């Protein structure tokens, strides 16, 4: 199973900055094997990114989408539009969407089902806040988010990203033990839903991943990749992450 490492650029980079990054980054990735590399620029830069990625193994993701196919939904973007611009994936349920745009588990589930129906691969995000961790509710929150997110969802064309909210953009990474503990809990929760098929679902870690900590995180049993914010904005830094040192 390949690792899966995705850059989530959030609300960063113009069209030109996107092109410049990819012109520098894509040639670096030629020798990398065993890693699926995905980049998720802002909506406005997807077309330019898709153009730069042609003929390369780097794949394109959007950071969000709406569940309807078309119609009077001002400001929204449909799954088919993402396919049209060249996306193979879409991030759904990021904690910033849940926090600032009030997306709940039902909305996240609806979006995941719509993405799958359109044929998009889904990067499904879950994670607890600092309050929730400190009040020992981590497993309860993760279980709820995974179970509700996966209602009527097939376990294919899907990765789950564990992003503890307290580790996002804070420089405070989960320890290897903390990551492994939650990842193995997510694996168990997925097995309860899907049986053996759950073992093919890659579980990514996200939250202050850097070139310095990526090797130890990727060495955890149930960590199958990373979702990277800040450290994915510079091509050299993201290259160091996707070329992390694999064990054995
Ligand atoms: P940082 O890597 O900046 O902590 O962001 C993580 C994240 O939210 C990726 O989706």
Structure commentary:
With 248 residues, this protein is of the alpha/beta class. The protein contains ten helices and eight strands. It has a single domain, classed as Aldolase class I (TIM Barrel). Helices cover 40% and strands 16% of the residues. Strand 6 (158-162), helix 8 (176-194) and strand 7 form a beta-alpha-beta unit. Helix 1 runs parallel beside helix 2 (46-53) and helix 1 (15-28) packs across helix 10 (235-242). It binds 1,3-dihydroxyacetonephosphate.
Q: What is the CATH class?
A: Alpha Beta
Low-confidence stretches: none
In DSSP terms (H or I, runs of 4 or more residues), the helix count works out at: 10
Q: How many structural domains are formed by the residues?
A: 1
Beta-strand percentage range = 15-25%
Rg (CA only) = 17 Å
Order of helices and strands: EHEHEHEHHEHHEHEHEH
Q: How far do the termini sit from each other?
A: 15 Å
User: Largest beta sheet, briefly?
Assistant: 8 strands, parallel, barrel
Number of strands: 8
Rounded mean pLDDT score: 97
Going by CATH, the architecture would be Alpha-Beta Barrel
Looking at this structure, what is the CATH superfamily? Aldolase class I
- Spatial ordering of strands, largest sheet: 1-2-3-4-5-6-7-8
User: How would the global form be characterised?
Assistant: globular
SS class: alpha/beta
